[in-house]
Amino acid sequence: MNPCRLRDDFKMASYRQTFGLTLFGKFFVGTILVVIGSLVGEMFLSSEEVKKGIHGSLEVSNKLNSGFKFENKVHEAGLIESYGSFDVVYGNLCKSEFLPLSKVSYQITHVPFGSDKIEVVATPLKYFKAKVSGQTEDKQEPILKASGVLTDEGLVQMNYQIPTTEWYDQISGALISITETSGKISNQAGQFDIQGVSRLIEVGLPNDSLGFEGVNFSAKFAPSREEAILVSLGVGKIKSGELFARDMSLRVQSTVKERILVTDGTLAIDVASYKGNPVEKVDAVFDFSANDVDSLFKIRDILSATCGGKLVDEEQRLELRMSADELVKAGIQARVSRFSWTGPRGDFNFEASAGMSEEKNANTGLPDFHKGFFLEAKGSGSSLYATMPFMSELTKNGTLVNSNNGLVGTMSIEKKRVSVNGKSSWPASFYETEINDFMSSVVPSIEDSLQMSGLDK
């Protein structure tokens, strides 16, 4: 055997072995790098999506003109964990005076190819002066804790708890306490759900107190659907100095379709008593509609930002005037289609409808809200209610008439004229004076904010 050939074969085998290990090593290392890269990328994208989602939600909330704003937003993205916080403030939008309510902090633990974990803590700021049961003066305890998961599809599922807490509301002077509150927050298919229960909520006012026992509530918000908002509230007992109610339920739903806003609701109370007058059942159905929701929201936004129209500039005046014209033309109406109660004295039923017709001010060409306001209302029930304090006053002044069919009464308002039980004499003249005085104090400020200098003045 040729020694040189043997040496060459050995070199080639060694080379092949080395080359083969190198290929495997490259494959192994490459696979590890791809996995690590995927993990890093997934976690980084997850953190960025969380940041966009949270900040986007806060920006939407800031545009609702509810008086609440979210400030000092911070988000620190990380591969393993991300952190963030924001302040919740409340105040007067037109004066830009906001009082701090609470600081909300969150921590997100990123799970590779799985649902991220999130924890949220809210602590009170100086405005609320909140005090959690058992806390010490040198440590501010959270007023809310929540934990849950965030999926890759953007779904959120969280449970929250609010410990027994009380705080003083500096604006209203109310002392508010909440006992044992918990619930869930979730979203799915473009709908956000909030549910909760509370054993006791008490509101101490300067001259009275109000207590709610056995509270349960839920809210659904679906901005991409026709059913935009649905709120349900149930209360086992309501107590105050002069009021008692048991088993109350309230449901309110708002929908927007083809620029038409419709809000409808129902109210039911099993047993109620006010100033010693018992009622066994209360049942109400009501609704509100505006046939041009864009104009309605434009008016709301401008008036909120300008102290009810006191600080409008010329551009805002023009937008207000055009929006008011469009809103009145399209139609706006509110109805109480049923309000009834049943008690030891019998039944009583009430219904009413109010709205705005298209009337113009002859001098300015603007909508005449005073003249355009209309109302139709009627009530009927057992004659035994004639001795009830509030009803007796209405019976004495002629608003309700005690007939063979029981107590009956009607009222209509059209073009500034008031009619009671088909007559314009007393008490219609009394109501007409009161309503005209009220409208004369409110409407001019609205119409002034619509007038354009140089055109209407």
Plain-language structure description:
The chain is of the alpha+beta class and 457 residues long. The chain is built from six helices and 22 strands. The protein has a 22-stranded antiparallel β-sheet that branches. A hairpin with a 4-residue loop joins strand 2 and strand 3. Helix 2 packs antiparallel against helix 3. The N terminus and C terminus are likely disordered.
Question: Roughly how many Å is the radius of gyration?
Answer: 32 Å
Rough outline: globular
Classify the helix fraction into a percent range: 25-40%
Quantity of strands, as a count:
22
SS element count, helices: 6
Q: Kindly name the structural category.
A: alpha+beta
What kind of oligomer do you see?
A: single chain
**What letter string, H or E per element, gives the SSE order?**
HEEEEEEEEEEEEEEEEHHEEHEHEEEH
Sheet bearing the most strands, described? 22 strands, antiparallel
Any chance you could write out the topology, listing elements then pairs?
Blueprint: H1 3-62, E1 68-76, E2 81-92, E3 97-109, E4 116-124, E5 131-132, E6 144-150, E7 156-162, E8 165-168, E9 175-188, E10 191-204, E11 209-221, E12 227-239, E13 243-257, E14 260-274, E15 277-279, E16 281-290, H2 293-305, H3 314-330, E17 332-343, E18 346-356, H4 369-372, E19 373-381, H5 389-396, E20 401-403, E21 406-414, E22 417-420, H6 428-450
Antiparallel strand pairs: 1-2, 2-3, 3-4, 4-6, 5-8, 6-7, 7-9, 8-9, 9-10, 10-11, 11-12, 12-13, 13-14, 14-15, 14-16, 16-17, 17-18, 18-19, 19-21, 20-21, 21-22
Helix pairs in contact: 2-3
